[in-house]
């Protein structure tokens, strides 16, 4: 009896006192206010979605709680005690773990090593290597059984890196898990195992705070939504059928639709996929002005098709007929560029942006790739070329002289599109190009595809959200189910 | 493209050190000593220009000091054999370029880390210089190059290195090739995806670096009228330091030749100042190390505060 009462008192106190309490937290970058007097309390077991457009302050809030950034003013209490995290380590010491949108793994270490380093001594002292390995395997198996513990992180596609990073966070058994866009590289059909793991942890009392643009994440994961605008909480409410419509509206207007494809169907693109891609020998066709969406297989496998079309799978090179031209075999990216194929990557940091170079040079670089090396070019030529491109894609608030790393994710995506479209490609590949984009960014992509098709181009789309694939394409192509185990 | 204002901290450091040294020893600022420093800078500057190309394209070249010695020894041997110093120079430059090509082969084709590949070539080139020269200086054949250091209104080597720096800057900043070098160094994958040949641009930078290192070997040998197999020892580190002081980044995509030239001047000035101020010569490395740390720290601070 005595013991029981003690237990009750204990939980009662726990319920009364929030796990994390933020009061009037402010953070500015130069003249930009990222967070303005933000207050929020998080209790044990809470599953909260943090919503808002790019720049609303979601990432700043997560970075502050995760120890990657510090507030200018305001108080953060963890279990009633005032804290200030100078590093992610300090946050981890208080049981707060942050899983960022760009999965931060050690590129040259294996999955196993990444998991053991990240779990920060919480695997139990004296656990043997075999036991630890089993623990990792069983965790990863629940999400994706094809992840190989021995593989180097750098060799993995971004979707798997994201899974590994998230697993690492879960393994450290945090009291509060912060996630910036948990599933930006997973198709909707692939997300449920990830969500199940997170739900199981919240049932044990872990709180989770998820920044997201996706309604499916809100719908299947959280019980409470916090909406941010201009660094303030504009609404903090439970998620239920009665608030669902409001949440949807807050996430942004519906995507625009494509115009009808041309009546006259003329095959403009014919792709022979090599069997090595795992779909058996098969053929994809698209007519001029048509946009097709690939569905039915895990995004990572669909992405391999797209990458082989970009010349990035030298082992199993794909051959294509573009327009009237003879067949080309795509062994290198240069082959693909030559054939008029433009590949828009989901991995903007690693494959898209020249961070140290100016926006102008980023825009002009594809053009420079095909010119003679010793040709002179003046920076004025580059600037005016870049300015005309920037105006065409409506890169707002941008001086083309700035370095490209200062751009937001949405603007980086516009930059990459502008660079590619300037070369007047015949085929546009969007390989989960919506990753990390808010509703404005996604709507922009659909409009771009529409214009591209109206001019007779063909487009192939893969994306995490089926809703986007539907909006951005005229026709879905169900890929045969994998013939390999 | 980096702006001139980014060079102010390094330039200020050069002026500051000059001021302090001039107070201790006024002859530091004499025309003779200033021109002397420009002459002393020549060999390091030529090496550092090549290094900057490599660093911009995302690599590093540890073999330059040894290539300098190898080029010098080839110059000595070929000149003695042919009796024609011009033939010797062409042979030396060709040898340096070949060593650069060897670096490029191991980095781009075999796929070794640039640090390791160029470390290996460094050993090969230094060993080759010793083997070919029998470990002894080759002297007396290079009278035909003495004009390089003759004092007319301006010493020819000074014209040479500053001219090369200007030429290199033109190549880097206003040609397509130059801008692609930056792109390759900034993001190799992104460059490859839009059809830029990463290997070609890497290879170009290593060959340029090798050729320029051999040219520096010619300058050093001409000055001493002797090809020394030990010449250019540790030049690679000074050259890297100069490029980084001048704004280069070892992760690639950043750096320019104006900055590198200022970096070279700062290093040479420091050496000169320590000597002329009468500090004991063994305190030289200490003073240089401390001042370099201060200069680079200051530079980073100002760069950061500008970003905020």
Can you tell me about this structure?
The complex is a heterodimer of chains A (485) and B (308). Chain A has 485 residues and is α/β, with parallel strands linked by helices. Chain A has 17 helices and 19 strands. In chain A, helix 7 links the parallel strand 7 and strand 8. The N and C termini of chain A lie far apart (56 Å). In chain A, 46% of the residues are buried. Chain B is mainly alpha-helical. Chain B has a two-stranded antiparallel sheet. At the A-B interface, helix 11 and helix 13 of A face helix 7 and helix 8 of B.
Key terms:
heterodimer, A: Rossmann fold, 19 strands, 38% helix, 22% strand, B: 308 residues, mainly alpha, ABC transporter involved in vitamin B12 uptake, BtuC, two-stranded antiparallel sheet, 73% helix, globular
Task: Please describe the topology of this protein.
The complex is a heterodimer of chains A (485) and B (308).
Chain A: H1 2-16, E1 20-29, E2 32-42, E3 47-51, H2 58-65, E4 73-78, E5 81-82, H3 88-93, E6 96-99, H4 111-118, H5 129-143, H6 158-171, E7 176-180, H7 188-203, E8 207-211, H8 215-221, E9 224-229, E10 232-238, H9 241-251, E11 267-273, E12 282-287, E13 291-295, H10 299-309, E14 318-322, E15 328-330, H11 333-338, E16 341-344, H12 348-351, H13 359-369, H14 379-392, H15 409-421, E17 427-431, H16 439-454, E18 458-462, H17 466-472, E19 475-478
Parallel strand pairs in A: 3-8, 3-9, 6-7, 7-8, 13-18, 13-19, 16-17, 17-18
Antiparallel strand pairs in A: 1-2, 1-4, 4-5, 9-10, 11-12, 11-14, 14-15
Helix pairs in contact in A: 4-6, 7-8, 13-14, 13-15
Chain B: H1 8-24, H2 31-56, H3 64-82, H4 85-109, H5 114-133, E1 138-139, H6 156-174, H7 176-186, H8 188-193, H9 198-224, E2 226-227, H10 235-245, H11 257-276, H12 284-307
Antiparallel strand pairs in B: 1-2
Helix pairs in contact in B: 1-11, 2-6, 2-9, 2-10, 2-11, 3-4, 3-5, 3-9, 4-5, 4-9, 6-7, 7-9, 10-11, 11-12
């Amino acid at each position: 009896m005595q013991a029981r009462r003690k237990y009750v008192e204990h939980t009662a106190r726990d319920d009364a006192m929030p796990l994390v309490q933020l009061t009037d937290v402010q953070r500015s970058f130069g003249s930009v206010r990222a967070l303005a007097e933000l207050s929020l309390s998080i209790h044990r077991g809470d599953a909260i979605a943090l919503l808002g457009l790019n720049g609303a302050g979601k990432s700043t809030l997560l970075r502050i709680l995760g120890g990657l950034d510090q507030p200018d003013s305001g108080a953060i209490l963890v279990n009633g005690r005032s804290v200030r995290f100078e590093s992610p380590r300090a946050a981890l010491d208080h049981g707060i773990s942050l899983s960022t949108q760009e999965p931060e793994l050690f590129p040259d270490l294996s999955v196993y090593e990444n998991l053991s380093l990240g779990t920060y001594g919480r695997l139990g002292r004296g656990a043997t290597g075999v036991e630890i390995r089993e623990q990792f395997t069983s965790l990863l198996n629940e999400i994706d059984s094809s992840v190989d513990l021995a593989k180097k992180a750098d060799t993995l596609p971004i979707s798997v890196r994201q899974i590994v990073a998230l697993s690492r966070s879960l393994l450290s058994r945090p009291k509060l898990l912060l996630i910036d866009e948990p599933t930006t590289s997973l198709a909707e059909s692939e997300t449920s195992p990830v969500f199940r793991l997170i739900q199981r942890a919240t049932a044990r009392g872990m709180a989770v705070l998820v920044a997201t643009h996706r309604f499916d994440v809100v719908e299947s994961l959280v019980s409470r939504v916090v909406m941010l605008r201009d660094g303030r909480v504009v609404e903090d409410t439970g998620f239920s059928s009665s608030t669902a419509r409001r949440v949807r509206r807050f996430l942004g207007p519906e995507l625009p639709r494509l115009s009808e494809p041309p009546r006259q169907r003329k095959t403009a693109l014919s792709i022979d996929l090599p069997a090595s891609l795992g779909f058996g020998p098969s053929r994809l066709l698209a007519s001029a002005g048509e946009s097709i969406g690939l569905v039915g297989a895990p995004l990572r496998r669909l992405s391999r098709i797209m990458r082989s079309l970009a010349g990035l799978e030298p082992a199993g090179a794909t051959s294509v007929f573009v327009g009237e031209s003879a067949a080309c075999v795509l062994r290198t990216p240069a082959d693909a560029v030559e054939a008029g194929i433009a590949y828009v990557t989901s991995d903007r940091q690693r494959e898209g942006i020249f961070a140290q170079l100016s926006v102008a040079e980023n825009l002009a670089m594809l053009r420079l790739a095909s010119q003679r090396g010793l040709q002179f070019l003046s920076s004025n030529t580059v600037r005016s070329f870049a300015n005309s491109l920037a105006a065409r894609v409506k890169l707002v608030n941008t001086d083309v002289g700035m370095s490209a790393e200062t751009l937001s994710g949405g603007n980086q995506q516009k930059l990459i599109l502008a660079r590619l479209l300037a070369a007047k490609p015949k085929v546009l590949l969007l390989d989960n190009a919506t990753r990390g984009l808010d509703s404005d960014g996604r709507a922009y992509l659909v409009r771009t595809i529409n214009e591209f098709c109206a001019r007779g181009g063909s487009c192939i789309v893969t994306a995490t959200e089926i809703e986007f694939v539907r909006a951005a394409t005229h026709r879905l192509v169900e890929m045969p189910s994998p013939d390999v185990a | 493209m980096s702006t001139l204002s980014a060079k102010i901290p390094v330039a200020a450091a050069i002026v500051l050190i000059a001021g302090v040294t001039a107070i201790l020893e006024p002859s530091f600022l004499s025309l003779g000593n200033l021109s002397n420093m420009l002459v002393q800078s020549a060999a390091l500057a030529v090496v550092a220009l090549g290094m900057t190309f490599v660093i911009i394209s995302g690599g590093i070249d540890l073999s330059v000091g040894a290539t300098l010695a190898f080029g010098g020894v080839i110059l000595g041997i070929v000149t003695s054999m042919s009796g024609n110093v011009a033939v010797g120079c062409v042979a030396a430059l060709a040898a340096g370029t070949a060593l650069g090509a060897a670096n490029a082969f191991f980095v781009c084709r075999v796929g070794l880390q640039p640090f390791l590949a160029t470390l290996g070539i460094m050993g090969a080139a230094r060993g080759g210089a010793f083997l070919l020269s029998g470990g002894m200086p080759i002297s007396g054949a290079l009278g035909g190059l003495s004009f390089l250091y003759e004092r007319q209104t301006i010493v020819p080597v000074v014209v040479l290195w500053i001219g090369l720096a200007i030429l290199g800057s033109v190549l880097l900043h206003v040609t397509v090739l130059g801008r692609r070098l930056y792109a390759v160094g900034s993001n190799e994958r992104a460059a490859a995806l839009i059809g830029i040949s990463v290997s070609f641009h890497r290879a170009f930078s290593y060959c340029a670096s090798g050729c320029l290192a051999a040219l520096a070997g010619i300058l050093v040998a001409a000055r001493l009228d002797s090809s020394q197999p030990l010449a250019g020892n540790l030049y690679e580190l000074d050259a890297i330091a100069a490029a980084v002081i001048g704004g280069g980044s070892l992760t690639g995509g950043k750096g320019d030749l104006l900055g590198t030239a200022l970096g070279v001047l700062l290093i040479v000035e420091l050496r000169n100042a320590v000597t002329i101020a009468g500090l004991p010569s063994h305190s030289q490395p200490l003073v240089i190390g401390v001042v370099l740390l201060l200069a680079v720290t200051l530079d980073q601070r100002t760069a950061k505060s500008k970003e905020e």
